[in-house]
Amino acid sequence: MKILLGKIGQKIIFNRESKDCDRSNTNGNVGTYLLFKLLIENNKDITFYVASENDLGSFETFESAPYANVIDASGMEWYELKKENIDVMIVLTGLTQYEKNDRFINIINNLRAEFMLLSDDPRCLDSVSEDERITRMPNLIISQFEGEYNFKGKMYHVFYEPIERASCYKFEPHEGEKDFDMVIVSNTSGEKYNRVKIVSGLIDGMTGLSIYGRLSEDEKESLGRGNCKGEVKYAEMQKILSRSYSTLVVPIQKGWVTSKYVESLMNGVLPIFYKDYNTELLEAEDLIIVHSSEEFSDV
């Protein structure tokens, strides 16, 4: 079997020692890499064509590249890939305004293969749906929620699969003492579903919290400037998280699941879920779910 992989609007970084993956805790690059790494390493009988922008060409020789069953197709046009008889396209959504070159979009539109669209972010799914350059309709949409979704005027039933669990693939735990009661990751997220505003309402003026993330000056004020510790890189955030007993988990959008609960558990941290998180999809019992600042304070 031959499978095409790609992400819209973002370069896939396989060389994790390069400066290109020196990302903050707000960036989804790590999740994309781990998801594709999991697929590639556990399906060695499949040939994968990585067709969106990537760094596979930065490896000096084919032998030094990380995977023998991967072909760098970032320089191939759709008509060249057509000759390869690709069976399936697996495309991860991204913000389409960052897809400046139409080459990968032309591949999506013109390659006659089964088309599976994956989405770990509602903003990215909306972006792909609204982009008029993308005309191909997927055969299947898999995401981190379950329900109906209007994609380019056609109603789809979106299926939930725990793709967020790729975050813990080959994770190495950090050793260290617990010295925080709670760490919160809270980033600017827009007005449609304002996570910072939700967190601000839940903490309701509490002090002594450790809140990390990229925030505006107004958001820092609403959360309490003394609580805000700034933005850190992804790897450093995992180390900080591992020092905490608990963390607050708020979804990207009501009804969604994120990778934050996975990062909590793999670091030995108790996730405390806000009510909008789709905990039913996790199929777990005795989770701690808060609805108000009073419940948050009690927890």
Strand content: 15-25%
- Helix count equals 9
Number of strands: 14
The SS-based structural class is: alpha/beta
How does the overall form come out from the CA principal axes?
Answer: globular
> Mean pLDDT, rounded to whole units?
90
Largest sheet: 8 strands, mixed
The low-confidence parts are none
Question: Whole-Å distance between the termini?
Answer: 50 Å
Residues in helix, %: 10-25%
Summarize the helix and strand pattern as letters. EHEEHEHEHEEEEHEHEHEHEEH
Strands across the major sheet, in which order? 3-2-1-4-5-6-8-7
**What's the alpha carbon Rg, rounded to whole Å?**
20 Å
Explain what the structure shows.
This protein has 299 residues and is of the alpha/beta class. It is 24% helix and 22% strand. The protein is built from nine helices and 14 strands. It has helices spanning 29-41, 78-82, 103-110, 122-130, 195-203, 217-223, 234-242, 260-266, 293-298; strands at 2-7, 47-50, 70-72, 88-92, 114-119, 140-143, 147-151, 154-160, 180-185, 210-212, 228-230, 244-249, 270-274, 288-290. An eight-stranded mixed sheet has the order 3-2-1-4-5-6-8-7, sandwiched between helices. The protein is globular, with a radius of gyration of 20 Å. It starts with a strand and ends with a helix.
